[in-house]
Amino acid sequence: MRTLVATTGATDAAAAPSLRPEHMERIAAAAAEVLSANTRRAYATAWRAWVAWCAAEGVEPMPAQPILVAAYLAEREHGSRGAPSPAVHPGVRRVLRGIARRQASEGRTPQQAAALTTEALAAIRATAHRPRTGPGGRTESAERARRRGDMDVAIVTVMRDAMLRRSEAAALTWSDVECLPDGTGRLTVRRSKADQAGVGAELFLGQDATAALERIRPESPAPKSPVFGGLGGRAIADRIRKAARAAGLEGEFSGHSPRIGMARDLAASGASTTALMMAGRWHSERMPALYARGELAGRGPVARYYGDA
User: Fold this and answer.
1) At 253, is the secondary structure helix, strand, or coil?
2) How many domains is the chain partitioned into structurally?
3) In angstroms, what CA-CA distances link 149 with 90, 146, 192, 249?
4) What is the extent of the structural domain holding 25?
């Protein structure tokens, strides 16, 4: 009950017991929908770890005391569950800053996925249809390599143009794809991690991405059939990783690589961080600025000064 009241923002906890159980269940279910399924799973895992640590220390997990959270954070991460976050406490914040500084001094900086830039895309397109040899030593047939290559090219090209998250790519159906007479296309993303209300977005696809989709489109696809053959987010990321490796590209490629690569290419072409934020459907300029910091630095005031000199 205490968690539910905190989650819904209610201030009169005494009024909660007058509600019937079915009302409480509906409120809890509605409140849970604010978070994506992946986020809820991550919170549940973090909560179990926190409870286990508290049990071993002989302390109560709720309400979380700032000094206990500070001790816990010295070993592992903590996720809150409904109650006001103790991470805002000055002592806890100091511990977090100390951990971040120690990791930076040891060279353990956050790792960013490799960018799937225009050059990387060209390398993947040039090698995607070459037969590959599997772990068992068996080499693909030419026909199988063609079908797999067509799918790989469609995945990386579409995800770059639309700056899709891997979960968004996995959720696409053929009813979300529109091919226009000029050879370009439009893609409808109906819901995503950053759009839990389901407002949706209509995104542009260039001619290459649209043609790549046409090559993998079944003859008469059911409107709700998945565009990428029912691949989940992890499988899509794995295909990107393998396609990059087969193309001889260096770096850790993942499901984030198409978004990062397009952000960098757009920044290099002159797009502002605000434009990048809108194109990638980020809520702030922080992530696109991080992804494209090298390109943005090349257009900064110092670069302009030397360019004008």
Assistant:
1) coil
2) 2
3) 53, 5, 27, 16
4) 2-105
Take residue 173 and report the two structure tokens written for it: 């159906």
CATH for 77? 1.10.150
Q: Quick check: 298 and 270 in contact, CB under 8 A?
A: no
For the whole model, what pTM was predicted?
A: 0.67
Asked if residues 192 and 176 have their Cβ atoms less than 8 Å apart, the reply is no
Residue that terminates a domain, selected from 41, 71, 105? 105
The first and second tokens of residue 157, run together, are 């090209």
Partners of residue 192 on adjacent β-strands: 195
pLDDT band at 197 (very low <50, low <70, confident <90, very high): low
Q: Say if CB 206 and CB 181 are below 8 A apart.
A: no
> Do 44 and 134 have their domain in common?
no
Residue 72: in which H helix or E strand, if any?
helix 66-73
184 found inside a domain: yes
Residue pointed to by tokens 């977090």: 96
Helices 142-162, 233-246: axis angle to 10 degrees equals: 110
293/176 same-domain check: yes
Q: In what order do the strands lie in the sheet with 185-189?
A: 177-179, 185-189, 201-205
Q: Residue 270, by phi and psi: left (phi above 0), alpha (psi -120 to 50) or beta? A: left
Torsion of CA 85, 90, 95, 97, to 10 degrees: 100
Residue 240 belongs to domain with CATH number: 1.10.443.10
- pLDDT tens-digit readout, 62-121: 877 777 777 777 665 454 445 556 666 677 777 777 777 776 676 655 567 899 999 999
Residue 200 to residue 183: CA distance in whole angstroms: 23
Classify residue 66 by burial, with Cβ atoms within 10 Å: 0-12, 13-18, 19+. Answer: middle
- C-beta separation of 170 from 226 below 8 A: yes
Vertex 278: Cα angle to 276 and 282 (nearest 5): 85
Q: Which residue has the tokens 């002989």?
A: 58
Calpha distance 221→144 (Å, rounded): 20
